[in-house]
From TrEMBL:
<dbReference type="GO" id="GO:0005975">
    <property type="term" value="P:carbohydrate metabolic process"/>
</dbReference>
<feature type="binding site">
    <location>
        <position position="335"/>
    </location>
    <ligand>
        <name>Zn(2+)</name>
    </ligand>
</feature>
<feature type="binding site">
    <location>
        <position position="334"/>
    </location>
    <ligand>
        <name>Zn(2+)</name>
    </ligand>
</feature>
<dbReference type="InterPro" id="IPR012341">
    <property type="entry name" value="6hp_glycosidase-like_sf"/>
</dbReference>
<keyword id="KW-0862">Zinc</keyword>
<feature type="binding site">
    <location>
        <position position="289"/>
    </location>
    <ligand>
        <name>Zn(2+)</name>
    </ligand>
</feature>
<comment type="similarity">
    <text>Belongs to the LanC-like protein family.</text>
</comment>
<dbReference type="InterPro" id="IPR007822">
    <property type="entry name" value="LANC-like"/>
</dbReference>
<dbReference type="GO" id="GO:0005886">
    <property type="term" value="C:plasma membrane"/>
</dbReference>
<dbReference type="GO" id="GO:0046872">
    <property type="term" value="F:metal ion binding"/>
</dbReference>
<dbReference type="Pfam" id="PF05147">
    <property type="entry name" value="LANC_like"/>
</dbReference>
<protein>
    <recommendedName>
        <fullName>LanC-like protein GCL2</fullName>
    </recommendedName>
</protein>
<dbReference type="InterPro" id="IPR020464">
    <property type="entry name" value="LanC-like_prot_euk"/>
</dbReference>
<dbReference type="GO" id="GO:0031179">
    <property type="term" value="P:peptide modification"/>
</dbReference>
<keyword id="KW-0479">Metal-binding</keyword>
């Protein structure tokens, strides 16, 4: 198990030095060598205003690298998860942070390339399907004030068919399609995709979740490729997270609540969460896709919706797992340090506790100080798709941009 992550030797909390103290240190002290404990501890003790600027500069440099490596060539993988649309989403985020119109215009061009490449895709989700292309295209067109392009992408989105054979999970199923609908409505306008239409899909998900005979245990359960997963990508955490964004009937709301409480009651003794019902004893994965990090984001949303302190406390407990075992030997958003940092950002947004922000800052500083060297010498995996949003350095760039305005930080393509 220990081989999956770097030991976390950072203090549980470090008070920031004042700006004046920090400036005095920079003037009178030799800057520590990058990659050393001294360099890392120096970064995490910096005032947030200083470190956020460092992260912003690093993010914009990484963004340029991602653009160079993924644009201007034939689109082979159009998806937001591992392909070119992830570059577009990163450019959109960069625009939101910097207001650089060049990022928005380039984002639009990248979406156009992905649009052509995804025309015959049967996948329907935001992360891995045609819905992501059309949804992001519509939103970018809205920001550009291009009504003709907006109507084109909305029309294309509404041509996507959700068949009875679709799974219910986030990456490839109904929940992932609903997330695309919510994204459009957030940025284009309420009821752009009608609540009645989305409600019919929500009902289908709930009907499917209730059909499993759990012998009085979990109210809802779902299957994907023969396994009943718990995590954000394929299972309960991801599906419940999307359902929590809708106005549910009292019995439906109760089913979601009790499903999450079932997960809390049956978490592993370490505080981590199992991968699936079929794998309830193995405690190996501390990822967004499987394990505590993805569950934390859902528990935070549940705490916001239900006002139930049990969900807040469960999220805080799970965050200890991420702090202790979340410095993964991977860089990405899905199963890497970049994604795990959002556990703390989400909790900071919920509680206002500065210790959670510090831990997000610490994970970000670890990446800033060491990721390049660790990937270069093979100690950290750069992702099968090295420049992608969910597996590669695109995700690290996205995290660094989110650290600029931490109160507004949201896990990409998952949190609103």
């Amino acid at each position: 198990m220990a081989t999956r992550f770097f030991p976390n030797l950072m203090p549980n909390f470090v008070e920031e030095t004042s700006i004046l103290q920090n400036q005095h240190t920079l003037v009178h002290k030799t800057i520590p060598k990058q990659g050393t404990d001294e360099a890392l501890f120096s970064l995490i003790s910096m005032p947030y205003s200083i470190i956020s600027e460092k992260l912003k500069r690093a993010a914009l440099d990484l963004k340029e690298t991602v653009v160079v490596q993924t644009c201007g060539k034939q689109v082979e993988d159009f998806t937001l998860y591992s392909g070119t649309l992830g570059t577009a989403f990163l450019l959109f985020k960069s625009f939101l942070v910097t207001q650089n119109i060049n990022d928005l215009q380039l984002c639009c061009q990248v979406v156009e390339a992905c649009d052509a490449a995804s025309l015959h895709s049967r996948d329907v989700t935001f992360l891995c399907g045609r819905a992501g292309v059309c949804a992001l295209g519509a939103v970018v067109a809205k920001f550009l004030g291009d009504d003709k392009l907006l109507q084109y992408h909305l029309a294309q989105f509404k041509e996507i068919t959700i068949t009875s054979n679709e799974p219910d999970e986030l990456l490839y199923g109904r929940a992932g399609y609903l997330w695309a609908c919510l994204f459009i409505n957030q940025h284009v306008g309420k009821e752009t995709i009608s609540s009645a239409y989305m409600g019919s899909i929500v009902n289908e998900i709930l009907k499917n979740g209730r059909r499993f005979d759990m012998k009085g245990r979990s109210s809802l359960m779902f299957e994907w490729y023969g396994e009943r997963y718990w995590g954000a990508a394929h299972g309960l955490a991801g599906i419940m997270h999307v359902l929590l964004h809708f106005d549910l009937k009292p019995d439906e709301s109760e089913d979601v609540k009790q499903t999450l409480k079932y997960m809390i009651e049956n978490r592993l003794s370490t505080g981590n969460y199992p991968t699936s019902e079929e794998d309830r004893r193995r405690d190996a994965l501390v990822h967004w896709c499987h394990g505590a990090p993805g569950v934390i984001l859902t528990l935070v949303k549940a705490a916001e919706v239900f006002g139930d302190k049990e969900f807040t406390q469960a999220a805080i407990d799970a965050a200890e797992v991420v702090w202790n075992r979340g410095l993964l030997k991977r860089v990405g958003i899905c199963h890497g340090i970049s994604g795990n940092a959002y556990s703390f950002l989400s909790l900071y947004r919920l509680t206002g506790n500065a210790e959670h922000l510090y831990k997000a800052k610490a994970f970000s500083c670890f990446l800033l100080d060491r990721a390049h060297k660790l990937m270069s010498n093979g100690e950290m995996h750069g992702g099968d798709s090295r420049y992608s949003l969910f597996e590669g350095i695109g995700g690290m760039a996205y995290l660094f941009l989110d650290m600029v305005e931490s109160n507004n930080a949201r896990f990409p393509a998952y949190e609103f």
